[in-house]
Amino acid sequence: MTHASTDLFLEGFTPTVKLLPVVYLSVLDHYQRRSEGQPRVIGTLLGTVVGTQVQVTSCFPVPHSETDETVAVDMDYHRTMSELHQRVNPKEVIVGWYATGNEVTEHSTLIHEFYSRDTKNPVHICIDTKLSGGRMSVLAVVSAPMGVPKTGEAVGTLFTPVKCEVELHEPERIALDLMQRGLGREKAGTTSFITDLEQVFESTAKLQDMLGMVIEYVNKVVAGEIKGDPQVGKFLLDTLAAVPKLDPAQVEQLFKTTLQDLLLVVYLSNITRQQVMLQEKLSDVL
Length: 286
What we know:
The chain is of the alpha/beta class.
């Protein structure tokens, strides 16, 4: 099997791992479908590498079994799935592997060595599906060989934590918001899209909350209660510079016009729905 570039990140630089939400969902689904009595699950991480950034875009599970003394990984399944993914998306390469849990175990070293055959410097991600700390924590590590100075012989593997963050795009944010609204409902597993008016209302409320936080922060800095952060000040300056200078009356008129267009679309949609329902009833009668 031919792999793309195996030099994951520049030598001497610490990589930054970025995860897409679909990776979390795939790992959770794999963990929920695990065999009875299986303490954890593992799988292969796929993505792209640019400089020192490793972006994990997808993953697939890999069957394995482990006891206190031994660990076995289905290498044939791993290679078959890797080849299939390469056919579908050649830009995605193997960047590492994942495991459920909140720490690196003794068997992780052996599994990590297996993935080192497919890619140089693989990234290992531990996802705490048991919510040990009250949240689903994520730990990303890379390995480095340990050895005796001047001999050049490696006697062990040292795992070093690296920065790991979630990269959230607009469609994924909307999907996650829908999933969050579905939590705690009587009828589990069901949720619905909010209307356009509700979307406008929620967006406006969030914007007001964020503006209130910014105003409170600026007032405290001006009053000398807290020390200002230059980075935050730069972000605020860039944000204000990106806002077009409009007259308040123009903004109000623009908002009213947009709202009227939105109400018209909702009105026409309701009429269309009523017409379709009426047509269905007439068809049943005739």
